[in-house]
Write a structure and sequence with these properties.
Helices cover 70% and strands 4% of the residues. The protein contains 13 helices and two strands. A two-stranded parallel ribbon has the order 1-2. Helix 5 packs antiparallel against helix 6. The radius of gyration is 20 Å and the shape is elongated.
Length: 251
């Protein structure tokens, strides 16, 4: 079966004052600097600054939340979940923290718990498009393609400019064998953001399955220009064009 690359929508909340705790100016300064360091790719120093912010304001859920994201980026899954747990304990209505905790669980393979967390986030904030789309990715991983597509539909209703949601809905439709609908979703994703290699890869797979080989080859060529690491995947697909699609996760 063919490989389909799925992505997860990530959230990083910038530093701001929250009503849940009296936050010191020092804590806010360290959090802001940590955000800047994280955005610049210096995750280790960002982690240090988030830790200092927590020392100054140990009741600030946002500091634990952002440190959880940074810990996930470093591959510290248990540490990330622990931070999201603290953020949720401080603020039980922190929908984004539930969403991110579920993202880590999804990555770890705990799909049922992840889906439950996304559902909790949606109950708290029914307008959180990321929760629907990430739950869709988890449902795709479990093989619940109809449920996944329903989630992507709702996520796109809330945020119709999400290239990732169109791409992932297209991947689910490709896995169902609905090739025309899949191509239409990939087309839309590329219209919004034409820099994602996996979208060209997946559209190439759908086009190849439709017998549109020349168009598929152009997509594979564009895919490799954007990310040469996908060369092996492209070569496997082109060598075995009769294989059926399957979904895998990509981060």
């Amino acid at each position: 079966m063919r490989r389909i690359y799925l992505s997860v929508i990530f959230l990083l909340v910038p530093g701001f004052w929250t009503a849940q705790a009296q936050t010191s100016a020092s804590a806010a300064s360290y959090l802001e600097r940590g955000n800047s360091l994280y955005a610049g790719g210096d995750v280790d120093k960002a982690l240090a600054d988030y830790g200092t912010a927590i020392t100054f304001s140990p009741g600030w859920a946002l500091a634990y939340y952002n440190r959880g994201i940074a810990r996930y980026a470093k591959g510290d899954l248990d540490g990330a979940i622990a931070d999201f747990d603290v953020a949720i304990r401080i603020d039980p209505l922190y929908a984004a923290a539930y969403c991110w905790r579920s993202t880590v669980l999804h990555y770890r393979g705990d799909l049922d718990e992840a889906i439950g967390g996304y559902t909790k986030a949606i109950k708290i904030n029914p307008r959180l498009a990321e929760a629907y789309c990430n739950r869709g990715a988890a449902r795709t991983a479990k093989g619940d393609l109809d449920g996944a597509i329903a989630d992507y539909n709702e996520g796109l209703r809330i945020n119709p400019r999400s290239a990732t949601a169109y791409s992932d809905r297209g991947s689910a439709r490709l896995a169902q064998g609905h090739l025309q609908e899949a191509v239409a979703d990939f087309d839309k994703a590329i219209q919004i953001d034409d820099r994602k290699a996996v979208v060209y890869f997946n559209r190439g797979v759908a086009l190849l399955d439709q017998g549109r080989t020349a168009e598929a080859d152009k997509d594979f060529e564009r895919c490799l220009k954007l990310d040469a690491r996908l060369r092996a995947a492209v070569e496997r697909v082109k060598e075995k064009p009769d294989l059926s699609p399957r979904a895998i996760r990509s981060h």
